[in-house]
Write a structure and sequence with these properties.
The complex is a heterodimer of chains A (103) and B (251).
Chain A lengths: L2 H30 L28 H33 L10
Chain B lengths: L9 H18 L3 H4 L12 H31 L5 H27 L3 H15 L1 H27 L1 H9 L3 H31 L5 H6 L1 H37 L3
Helix pairs in contact in B: 3-4, 3-5, 3-6, 4-5, 4-6, 6-8, 6-10, 7-8, 8-10
The chains are: A mainly alpha (103), B mainly alpha (251).
Chain lengths: 103, 251
């Protein structure tokens, strides 16, 4: 294998790795910020439920409280998702804030 | 000297770049493109142009209302909204969709450019989908979800108290302090949400057009109430999380 070939392969690997890392970073950033979309697609991604727990009477207090806690944490996450949707709706509101636009 | 040829790099770079671009594309908010489709300038007498531009404005708004409609249905299916809450929101969406569709029919049938321009102005003046309806309805969803979270937390109070009472004596003081704060935060959220509910009736296109200062001040008050309720509920959830942690530690 010549020196040039080795260099070429190393260069390809470096570029591929850099782009892959960039993609991963962007995806990670998006999931951290809720990855909510805007404008014509204001749907938040959280799908957790807020229905109250109906834990059986046989549940221990400890496991019952863990289940309650999980439901409450999901419920507050839902609020954050809804807040994102509100922010997105506000972002498009500026396009209509002034007097009517005429073609 | 040997020539350094980069052609062999084309294929792998194209593939990896395409993957990277796909990831970036998926992350770009739709708002980046939302406002760019507007404003074709039509000549004073070009009726067809005015109608086409008006139709585009209406279609964009109908699409956004459809997105809101899907969002409400998804939240209903996920039990984030109750059926009453979802029905009220869907009714508002339907009213606006019908109104815009009627306006589109009227616009499409116009033979006078002045009348067509008035129809286009009415897309803004009568509906204010982006300025009023969507911000208001998404806030309504947010408020409903906050109300449901608050109700959930209130509903769990007796179970939490029961769990605390059967905890070891040396944990009771800390647990009771946390529970007391939990209840205080939930009550504070309830009060904020009561305030928020009173602000919605004033959020109308009419108020936006005729009394903008009052409209903006109502919107700010609503935002402050929703924000405060959200903070209270987060704090209550944090208290509960701490209680669950203490109660979950095996002795």
């Amino acid at each position: 294998m010549t020196w040039t070939t080795t260099r070429r392969r190393a260069l390809i690997l470096c570029i591929a790795l850099a782009l892959f890392l960039l993609s991963l970073t962007l995806v990670a950033c998006a999931s951290r910020t809720g990855a909510s979309n805007a404008g014509n697609s204001n749907i938040s991604t959280s799908s957790s439920q807020t229905a109250p727990a109906t834990g059986s009477s046989g549940d221990s207090n400890s496991s019952s409280i863990q289940s309650i806690n999980q439901q409450v944490q999901n419920a507050v996450q839902n609020i954050d998702g809804a807040q994102n949707d509100t922010n997105n709706a506000d972002a498009t509101a500026t396009s209509e804030g002034g007097p009517p636009q005429q073609p | 000297m040997k020539k350094f040829n980069l052609r062999f790099l084309t294929k792998p770079i194209t593939i990896v770049s395409a993957l990277g671009l796909l990831a970036i594309g998926a992350l770009l908010p739709a708002t980046v493109f939302a406002a760019s489709s507007q404003q074709t300038k039509c000549s004073a007498t070009d009726l067809k142009c005015v109608i086409a531009a008006g139709d585009t404005l209406i279609t964009n708004r109908l699409n956004s209302l459809n997105t809101l409609k899907s969002k409400i249905s998804a939240d209903l299916s996920a039990h984030k909204l109750t059926s009453d809450q979802a029905s009220a929101l869907q009714a508002d969406v339907a009213t606006n969709q019908t109104g815009l569709s009627n306006l589109k029919s009227k616009l499409d049938a116009e033979t006078d450019v002045k009348a067509a321009r008035q129809d286009v102005a009415n897309i803004f003046l009568q509906f204010r989908i982006y300025a009023v309806v969507l911000p208001r309805d998404y806030r309504r969803i947010q408020m409903d979800i906050e109300i449901n979270a608050k109700n959930l937390m209130q509903g769990f109070a007796s179970k939490i108290q029961e769990a605390i009472s059967s905890a070891p004596a040396n944990e009771q003081a800390q647990l009771n302090a946390l529970f007391s704060d939990y209840q205080k935060q939930v009550a504070a959220a309830e009060s904020q949400l009561d305030t928020a509910q009173q602000d919605f009736p004033a959020m109308t296109p009419e108020n936006f057009n005729q009394n903008r200062a009052s409209y903006e001040s109502t919107k700010t008050a609503l935002d402050n109430a929703l924000k405060a309720a959200r903070a209270d509920l987060h704090q209550a959830a944090k208290d509960l999380n701490e209680m669950a942690h203490i109660l979950g530690i095996k002795k």
